[in-house]
Amino acid sequence: MPEGHTVHRLARTLRELLGGERLRVTSPQGRFADGAALLDGRRLVAVEAWGKQLFCAFAPDDAPRGRAARAPGSSDVSSRAGRGAVPGRDDSPGPPDPAGADMLWLRTHLGLYGAWTFTGAPGVADVAHAIGAPRKRIGERETVVRAPAGSSDAEVHVTADDLGSDELGSGARRPGEGWEPPAPRGQVRARLLGRHMVADLTGPAACEVITPAEKHAVTARLGPDPIREGERGHDAERFVARAGRSRVTIGQLLMDQAVIAGVGNIYRAEALFRAGVDPLRPGREVPPSSARALWDDLVVLMRDGARTGAIVTTRPEDRTGPQPPGRLRTRQNTDGTPDAVPADQAFYVYHRDGLPCRACGSPVLLKELAGRNLFWCATCQR
DNA sequence: AATATATGCAAAG
DNA sequence: TTTGCCTATATTT
Fold it and tell me: Which interval of the chain is the signal sequence (predicted)?
């Protein structure tokens, strides 16, 4: 269920935790055995997200060595703030050419159910960490650390569980020394194993090894990605022009990865509400100023999502709904930041059908459109 | 134990 | 427009 923000977050995590390393690549489940054999022993030199697509570049081990290539606008593997340094890391300069003829790319797409699970050696990454489905992350538990009375905000602390005290939390050993990765859990399609970290991929819609040319063909079909805005220039104008000449509804255009990459069902519904745009209005009948506002808002919302790991679109003054009885539930993947918001106050319309609109009080509507649930307020969105 | 659900997408009809 | 697929988890029987 990840939207683009999740995939960018994954890219950063893979870059930081495995970038620059020679990896063992396997397919414990077996369904990716051939592809894994192609990548096994190669070096992870770049990790890139575009919309919901995740690309990992694997260079031959004899290729020029260096840190993972810097994707424009993203941090490279040297940004390891808050994590322990890894001994023996190769520091030689000169990233390999990601388009080089001997490069192989791993293309993955999480689809509805996919997830990456990360497990690290003590002192390298002290928590098991998964992104994507399932909602409850494997080996992780969230606890509310602070929930001030009268405040809708709470701090959430993410702790590892289920992995045993020998593996996690003991700072006694040197980082990664003597570390063995845990046995694969569930249907692990692909496993990327570094010296101190393992990344397991389950349930992807796509997991394949492709050439640079094939990778280029995939990205050429994708529209501009709000999280990557600024790399190419004119992304906003591209989106506005493309949407503005279409007879397809703006609600469908926002879900079309060739029109705008990375938007999913939640960002679609929420951005349309925030812009006051009727999802059923044809793109060519949406004023360009509204289309531009949609794009600009998605840049902010999705970058926030990539930073915090959670989709929260409500403004603080609109999070005044009644607290549900029982224990506080917060949006997952919050990284323990104060940005945590009760799950039922994170959205304006998504999954709020039948409930009163936060702005006008009229009931939020639900309609199935192109196989997906569309939520909107017919009063606020024109 | 069976069923419902999910932030997706492409192929088939 | 409908179907099929990939998987783990919460809910219901």
Answer: none
Please give the structure tokens belonging to residue A298.
Answer: 């998605």
Q: Would you state the pLDDT for residue A176?
A: 52
Q: Straight-line distance from CA A317 to C1' C13, in Å?
A: 43
**Statement: the CB of A93 is under 7 Å from strand C:** no
List protein-proximal bases of chain B (any atom < 7 A from a CB): 6-10
Q: Distance (Å, rounded) from C-alpha A84 to C-alpha A118?
A: 16
**Residue pLDDT, tens place only, A109-141:** 999 889 998 888 876 664 456 677 554 444 444
Topology alike, domains A4-128+163-216 and A226-308+349-376: no
Domains of chain A by residue range? 4-128+163-216, 226-308+349-376
Is any atom of strand B within 7 angstroms of residue A266's beta carbon?
Answer: yes
The answer to whether A199 CB is within 7 Å of strand C is no
- Secondary-structure class of domain A4-128+163-216 per CATH: alpha beta
CA A135 / C1′ C8 distance in Å: 9
Average pLDDT, chain A: 79
Residue A330 has pLDDT above 70, yes or no: no
Whole-number pLDDT of residue A120: 85
**A349 contact to strand B (CB, 7 A limit):** no
CATH of domain A226-308+349-376: 1.10.8.50
Residue A296, classified by CB atoms within 10 Å of its CB into exposed (0-12), middle (13-18) or buried (19+), is: middle
For residue range A208-248, what is the model confidence (pLDDT) as tens digits? 999 999 999 999 999 999 999 999 899 999 999 999 999 99
Q: Which residues of A are catalytic?
A: 2-3, 52, 372
Q: How many Å separate Cα A134 from the centre of its chain?
A: 13
The spacing between the Cα labelled CA in A173 and the C1' in B5, in angstroms, equals 43
Whether residue A46 contacts residue A69, with contact meaning beta carbons closer than 8 Å, is answered with yes
Residues in contact with A232: Cβ distance below 8 Å, sequence separation at least 6, in sequence order: A224
